[in-house]
Amino acid sequence: MGSRRDVLRDPSRLAPLLEASGTVERVVLLGDVIELRHGPVREALGAAEPALSALGEAVGAGGEIVIVPGNHDHHLLTGWLDRRARKAPPPPLSLEQAVDWRQGETLATVIRRMAPAQVRVAYPGVWLRGDVYAMHGHYCDRHTTVPMFERLGAGVMARIIDEPAAGPRRAEDYEAILAPMYAWLYALAQSGGPSLAGSSHGPSARAWRTLAGRDRDGASRSARLRRRGLIAAFPALVAALNRAQVGPLAADVSGPELRRAALRAFGEVVARLEIEAGHVIFGHTHRAGPLAHDDRSEWMAPGGVQLLNTGCWVHEPSFLGPRPDESPYRAGFAVTLAADQPPRLTNLLDAARLRARA
To answer: Which residues contact 181 (CB under 8 A, 6 or more apart)?
Structure first.
């Protein structure tokens, strides 16, 4: 919340989430709960407060909210990470580490606004059941072959810190690469530096829209010429980045390849962190699935782990395509988990619209 494209500021679209949250024992917010990279933290907290408070009321004192921070709200972890390393080298991060907080920290403010619900914070992920693990999924930015903004930053940081030859194998390895980039983006937002735009994906969305030809309608002749020049030069640029060992990257930025590359990358995270689960749930890429028309074999990680993406609650026109109501990037998806049942992907906003028409 806070990127100006979130849908939860609209009471009519917040209502289905609140209704569903009031019927379960636990609500897991799987990262990017609050947008801390597009402006000062005070503005983000102010924008998010109504939805956070309403969610806390819906869950109630007898329910639990679990926050698993992602890349856009990684700053919520700053105080905890600093305390872990203040006196001695910190112990290794497990797959689920309890996060604490102190009065005055941004995380404490977020949690206070969710009263009366009981709130706990886990990182880098949380075990929902013995066979179901969930994390935000931002570690996949180290492995995806699509040359988006954070993938390029991760590739550069890996060179700077002299990443282990075999690549990241622990959560600490991913944090060493990604956390400095997140801290820089947060500091930029707080200091009033160049805006990353209202888009949830910022520069990545703008670049993809141009390379995929989504800027053609109404564009000036000079803009069209610049776009053609960028498209023509893009493969050579990707090749240069690969020679500089920022990759491996590929020049294919089509919609299907965005999906496949993200799934391959997150599958690699699952394998490298040795997440032994039947189902691993993630978000980050905003592409919900697997959906009915998807090739389910693409959604299997090494070892037969079933991947499930929760989608997002952000309206991002760049990714919705010509039929927004059918797009896997549309807002409103959630995963429900019942005892002894596999996780199930549903769209709460779709269900609310169907009920309204009945």
So the answer is: 150, 153, 154, 157
